[in-house]
């Protein structure tokens, strides 16, 4: 009986320890970004600054990656001649003026990247993940279109992909803030193209409940989304743990 208890306790401890290990495959923290203006002569984008631009490309990430296609690329577009530009890492107390053609600004997006009243698409550089022993290469793309009324914004703070060392589970994490009336005209989406079963195709940030509660009113969201790209398999210790549990129960039943 003592031996059984010792084995049970040892495997339970092993399970708890091994389950906590994960590796970061890709991480882009926009709150610590050093983006570069890709239109014409490259120039560093200043924090806490509102820009007005159309058809502009921004790249960011490590200096090594920027020499090629960057850890991420942002393509900007304007909805109309009066739409304002974009902000990197605005101070929470900063209030940009000139929203929608001159009205006083009242909305501060906070840290991260926010395209105020602008269309934009953020695409990561190529990322390779492990699909149960098979390498899959793809990108994560976030399309924030139709943000076009009164200082609305989708502010991205973090895009990250993690892999559990023990199970092989691959997870995509998106940390964002948003502000707007969300009456059905705003439909920012996430798309991944790794060729795995967990790929996302134009997944909408805002679910039906949020949209229904937001119609006709300005609302803010601050969420961390998590998506499983590759399902994991049980750890060896988990299998042994479950097997031992079954034996113990069987032994008790026979007794």
Q: How are the secondary structure elements laid out?
A:
Blueprint: H1 2-18, E1 22-29, E2 36-37, E3 43-44, E4 57-60, H2 63-66, E5 72-78, E6 86-88, H3 99-102, E7 113-115, E8 118-124, E9 127-131, E10 134-138, E11 140-144, E12 153-164, E13 170-180, E14 189-192, E15 203-204, H4 208-214, E16 219-230, H5 236-254
Antiparallel strand pairs: 1-12, 2-3, 2-4, 4-5, 5-8, 6-7, 7-12, 8-11, 9-10, 11-14, 12-13, 13-16, 14-15
Helix pairs in contact: 1-5
Protein name: PEP-CTERM sorting domain-containing protein
Keywords: Signal
Signal peptide: 1-22
Task: Give a brief rundown of this model.
This protein is an alpha+beta fold and 255 residues long.
Write a structural description:
- The protein is an alpha+beta fold and 255 residues long.
- The protein has two domains: 1-19 and 239-255; 20-234, no CATH class.
- Helices cover 20% and strands 36% of the residues.
- The chain has five helices and 16 strands.
- It has helices at 2-18, 63-66, 99-102, 208-214, 236-254; strands at residues 22-29, 36-37, 43-44, 57-60, 72-78, 86-88, 113-115, 118-124, 127-131, 134-138, 140-144, 153-164, 170-180, 189-192, 203-204, 219-230.
